[in-house]
Design a protein that fits this description.
By secondary structure, the protein is of the alpha+beta class. The protein has 11 helices and 15 strands. Strand 8 and strand 9 form a beta hairpin. This is CusA/CzcA family heavy metal efflux RND transporter.
Length: about 350
């Protein structure tokens, strides 16, 4: 049999050489497209479900949110284990699937089960599916820095400009903001003034919520043209909140500013980002499951160069952690070992 194969190869030298050349070209092409990572994910396939219920204790989260979710998700096909964790205002359900399960098939099945499980949790609890990434998907960290800007301003640039631009990069699952301060309107109510004006705290909450809204109406025609009628009411500054009417007493309107002090302050936070002993703000880029980290990081760097033009003068995006170097060193080590073995 072996002699027969050798004889055929000798009689068809050109065909053998051409086939061998095609195999080499195909091999090099496949090598360039094959996802290579210095930290391969060998863990079990898992899908995460997040539950947010601000201000609630871990016991309330466990009893009223996590327990209904866990029992509702246990019937998901090919699920091996369902684990959960409850914390202050937040809960997490971790679903482990059987080996060989397609990642996106598993996420689809979880979404289907969530539609049924949501009806058993409080309406003001927010249930979301985790990003389509793994625990090793944090391939790129960066900071947003700029002289003359405070942490709140830099965090706003990160949240409303940088994060959205990087999320649009092909292969990126999510960009999480870390560090800095999230700006928010804060209404500091004086209880003595509430009593003096005979106002309840829920009256203040209802008035602010109902005032922060735009409403639409019909159109009217004049001179052969149509004009759109709108009621514009979105809050734009502190003064808009201060002048919201809560009620009236003996024909005199009671404004928010009569019973409270309104300021722009930082949202309560439970963590910070430190760089060389200095507090900074930035983001973490999560790679989508199954993507090539080298190519994704290359796209991220290219996108950063493009969006840097739109940042205020003096503000820059500085890489904080880049897995490219680790991957390249791992590849070089592998190449050296293969060459030595050959």
């Amino acid at each position: 049999m072996i002699n027969k194969i050798i004889e055929i190869c000798l009689k068809n030298r050109f065909l053998v050489i051409a086939t061998f050349a095609l195999i080499i070209v195909w091999g090099f092409s496949s090598m360039k497209e094959t996802p290579v990572d210095a930290i391969p994910d060998i863990g079990e396939l898992q899908v995460l479900v997040y539950a947010d219920w601000p201000g609630r204790s871990p016991q309330d989260i466990e009893d009223q949110v996590i327990y209904p979710l866990t029992t509702g998700l246990m019937g998901t096909p090919r699920v091996k284990v369902v684990r959960s964790t409850s914390a202050f205002g937040f809960g997490l359900v971790n679903m482990i699937f059987a080996d060989g399960t397609d990642f996106y098939w598993a996420r689809t099945r979880v979404l289907e089960r969530l539609d049924f499980a949501r009806k058993d949790v409080p309406k003001d609890a927010t249930i979301t599916l985790g990003p389509d990434a793994t625990a090793l998907g944090q391939i790129f960290w960066y900071t947003v820095e700029g002289d003359g800007y405070n942490l709140a301003e830099l965090r706003s640039m990160q949240d409303w400009y940088v994060r959205y631009q990087l999320t649009a990069v092909d292969g990126v699952s999510e960009v999480a903001s870390v560090g800095g301060y999230v700006k928010q309107y804060q209404i500091d109510i004086d209880p003595n003034k509430l009593i003096a004006h005979d106002v309840k705290i829920h009256h203040v909450i209802d008035a602010v919520q109902k005032s922060n809204i735009d409403v639409g109406a019909k159109v009217f025609e004049e001179g052969g043209a149509e004009f759109i009628v709108r009621g514009i009411g979105f809050i734009k500054n502190v003064s808009d909140i201060e002048n919201i009417v809560i009620g009236e007493k003996e024909g005199v309107p009671i404004y928010v500013k009569n019973i409270a002090t309104v300021i722009i302050g930082p949202e309560f936070r439970r963590g910070a980002l430190d760089k060389e002993g200095k507090e900074v703000t930035g983001g973490v880029v999560l790679m989508r499951y199954g993507e090539n980290p080298l190519k994704v990081i290359e796209r991220i760097k290219q996108k950063i160069e493009e969006l840097s033009v739109g940042l205020p003068e003096g503000v820059k995006i500085v890489p904080f952690y880049d897995r490219t170097g680790l991957i390249q060193r791992s590849i070089n080590t592998l190449k050296t070992a293969l060459i030595q073995e050959i």
